[in-house]
Amino acid sequence: MKMNLILRILSPALCSLLALSLIACNSGKADPQAEAPPKSVVEPDLDANNFKIDHPEQFPLVTAVEHKAVPALNVTGVVNPDISRSVPVVSLAAGRVVEIDARLGDVVKKGQLLLRVQSNDVSGAYQIYLKAENDERLALVQLQRAQILYEKGAVAKSALEQAQATEQDAKADLQHALEGLRVLGIDKDHPSEIVNIVAPISGIISDQQVTNSSGVQGLGSPNPFTISDLSYVWIVCDVYENDLDAVRVGDVADIHLSAYPNQVFKGRIDNILPVLDPSLHTAKVRIEVKNPGLMRIGMFVTATFFGKKPETYSAVPASAILHLHDRDWVYTPLGNGHFKRVEVVTGSMLPNNQQQVVSGIKPGDQVVSNALDLQNTVEQ
């Protein structure tokens, strides 16, 4: 009885001691959340591009270095044929197309057959030739008769001279008729109503205006074909009025094709048109480029024009540049954990993963070495 009473009195004390011992044991274990570094807290300033970071040491800084380079202007353009190297194929005879031996885009050689035309002009030209040949034969006979009569004193000298003039005129008419047949490509001994149209130069057929059974007009428009010599092409670019001082006739430009971004071609500026586009205030700049065979009419290109004197720019690691909303930014320190996001204009990539900065910062300015890390912290 006494033992039960003692246990009842000691039970609360024992429970208290047991609880204290458990608390003491748990106090020796590590708390992961307590040991983790405190999270960075971003406090936005009144300026939307200013931020305060609790632990700025997490974002190391780099110093923008000086970089000298020739200023460059990049513009877009389109490949066009050299008009002086584009020759229309002219049909001297009007008629109906009965055969086409070349198509748009074909490479042709000078003298190659392009099409055949059935023409009434052939019969007309051949009739003129036959008449001229008969007239010349008759004039020759009359001249011979006049010479015999003059030698016998039967006619005056004036009659002989008249016969000589008539024969010379008939001979000239015959030569003219023969030339007409030759131009049409007709053999006087084997006449045919079919006229062959051949290529006047070697090149690529850049335009075609005929189909089978269509009609063509002699020396008329539209011309059946246009052949372009694409060994040299024109790059026509639009340059804004404010940038025209960077473009000079005779300067060399770098040409980058969108289809072949890793290749650079050289071209010479041969003309700057004197009239500006009234809506865009751009001038057409024409660059002559030797075509290695890769340039096709209508291709988009980027042309780079270079200045004469080198200028001083800044250069920072490429990781310091933040590409956000189609713009480029860097973070610059303001002190006491404050950072400012500054918009910059970037240039070309440099060796050692450096990025040229045209404007926004100057050599000696400090920026965050990894702008993306800071941006991710700002967005959290």
Search tags:
380 residues; rod-shaped; alpha+beta; 38% strand; conserved putative lor/sdh protein from methanococcus maripaludis s2 fold; 5 helices; Helix Hairpins; 6-stranded antiparallel barrel; 8-stranded antiparallel beta sheet; disordered N terminus; single chain
Please identify, by name, the CATH architecture of the domain at 50-70 and 310-379: Beta Barrel
Helix content: 25-40%
Low-pLDDT residue spans: 1-7, 22-29
Biggest β-sheet strands, sense, barrel:
8 strands, antiparallel
Tell me the β content: 35-45%
Query: Could you tell me the mean pLDDT?
Result: 83
By secondary-structure content and strand pairing, the structural class works out as alpha+beta
Number of helices: 5
Distance between the termini: 69 Å
